[in-house]
């Protein structure tokens, strides 16, 4: 099979518009009682128009970072359980507007959720099985060659789960503004490739999409699902 085809099979695949939230107007005051002297108190002032609350602006991600990764220092233990833990590291490209420690914490919490792939130990030195790397759009394009990511997609490039920083900042429309769930999906999907899992299709309309469906591109009539084993959280 041609190399380009192999890489095409290992990619995930725009962003929900920010919606302003409108606070409800204050309740209409009840009619005032007549005083014993027969006079009514002054009429209440007219209610002020509802105040518009601006939605939080999405983080502005530069098209290109420094092109160099830095391993997030320190480590984190795997969740309790049997079996060997997967050793991995977290990398963040320089020049991105995200805290490396916060990104590493999000990745570790996702991978060690009972609904994820297994047990993961984060380290800052080798040997490791894989890395999860937060990456600017243009560096993602370079890292994922010969796959064409178009500045928007993420991929597994044989060494790294390359997480496109634009996706990390904005998510995708199909997740309907649930950025946390989308971030969990993209981590689990790309790490899934690193563990040897390949793309699958939607098993049926209205069913949860398997995590190896390319949910960033299409849910294929399934429902969003960020987890390999979603029912594990119900035990």
From TrEMBL:
Where composition is biased (Low complexity), the residues are: 36-51
Q: Which Pfam families match?
A: DUF3152
Q: Where is the DUF3152 domain?
A: 60-220
Keywords (alphabetical) are:
Signal
Q: Does the keyword Ribonucleoprotein apply?
A: no
Give the residue ranges for region: Disordered: 18-59
Q: Which InterPro entries match?
A: DUF3152 (IPR022603)
Signal peptide range equals 1-17
Q: Which domain of life is it from?
A: Bacteria
User: Does Signal show up as a keyword for this record?
Assistant: yes
* SUPFAM superfamilies assigned to the protein according to its UniProt record, in alphabetical order: Metalloproteases ('zincins'), catalytic domain
Protein name as annotated: DUF3152 domain-containing protein
């Amino acid at each position: 099979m041609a190399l380009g085809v192999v890489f095409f099979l290992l990619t995930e695949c725009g962003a929900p518009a920010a919606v302003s939230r409108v606070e409800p107007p204050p309740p209409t005051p009840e009619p005032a009682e007549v005083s014993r002297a027969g006079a009514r108190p002054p009429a209440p002032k007219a209610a002020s128009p509802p105040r518009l609350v601006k939605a939080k602006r999405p983080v502005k991600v530069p098209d290109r970072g420094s092109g160099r990764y830095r391993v997030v220092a320190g480590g984190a233990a795997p969740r309790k359980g049997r079996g060997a833990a997967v050793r991995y590291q977290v990398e963040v490209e320089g020049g991105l507007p995200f805290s490396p420690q916060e990104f590493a914490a999000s990745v570790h919490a996702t991978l060690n959720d009972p609904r994820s792939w297994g047990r993961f130990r984060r380290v800052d030195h080798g040997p490791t099985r894989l890395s999860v790397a937060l990456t600017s759009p243009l560096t993602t394009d370079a890292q994922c060659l010969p796959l064409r990511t178009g500045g928007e997609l993420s991929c597994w490039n044989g060494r790294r789960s390359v997480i496109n920083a634009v996706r990390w900042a904005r998510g995708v429309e199909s997740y309907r503004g649930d950025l946390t769930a989308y971030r969990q999906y993209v981590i689990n999907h790309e790490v899934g490739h690193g563990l040897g899992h390949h793309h699958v299709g939607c098993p049926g309309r209205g069913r949860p999409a398997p995590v190896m469906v390319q949910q960033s591109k299409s849910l294929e009539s399934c429902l969003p699902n960020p987890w390999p084993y979603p029912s594990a959280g119900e035990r």
